[in-house]
Amino acid sequence: MPDEQPSKGSFFTTLPGVLTGIAAVLTALTGFWAIFHHDTPANPPKAAIIDGPPSGAATSPSSGTTPQSTAAQTSAAVNAGSATPISAVSLTSRKQLTTRLEGKTFHHNMTGTMLNLDSGQTIDFEKLRQIDFGNVNGDAHLVAVTITLNDGRTVPGDLPTNYAFAGDSDLGPFTIFVQDVRQIVFTH
């Protein structure tokens, strides 16, 4: 009589097989989650300098300053800057060429429809009236910007230069590197 060996079950019916299968499923789910949820952190740092008090803020008669703290002003700049849909964007390059883009297609190729300043401040495009671009610091790969919010307040900051803005014009797709932009005006 030949030696009969007991039949072996599938690898996935053993403890190491079950653990390997669970690890594979968790890895796949984590990968899918990362692909579809690549947003910015829920509570990014909020450190910006705001010119002037938020609209409607009371001022102290003796000092002319608001009773609100700087943190409250920063929060007001981000949260109270009225967000309205963008109908068009006029983008002027450093060569003084202006291109009009559809508001719904305009985006930053890294952060989508918001700006992430080097300070950590994040501001949605819908809260912006205008962005003026200053000097480029090539060594630091940054460009100085002054952002004007819908309510007229300004936020200074720096943007990384190694990204681009893009959108659709009446002629087709349009892309320009951050360091080549002079001004962006949002029409709401």
TrEMBL record:
Q: Where is the composition biased (Low complexity)?
A: 52-73
Transmembrane spans: 12-36
Query: Does the keyword Transmembrane belong to this entry?
Result: yes
**Which UniProt keywords are listed?**
Membrane, Transmembrane, Transmembrane helix
Where is region (Disordered) located?
45-73
Q: What is this protein called?
A: Uncharacterized protein
Species the sequence originates in: Terriglobus roseus
Lineage of the source organism? Answer: Bacteria, Pseudomonadati, Acidobacteriota, Terriglobia, Terriglobales
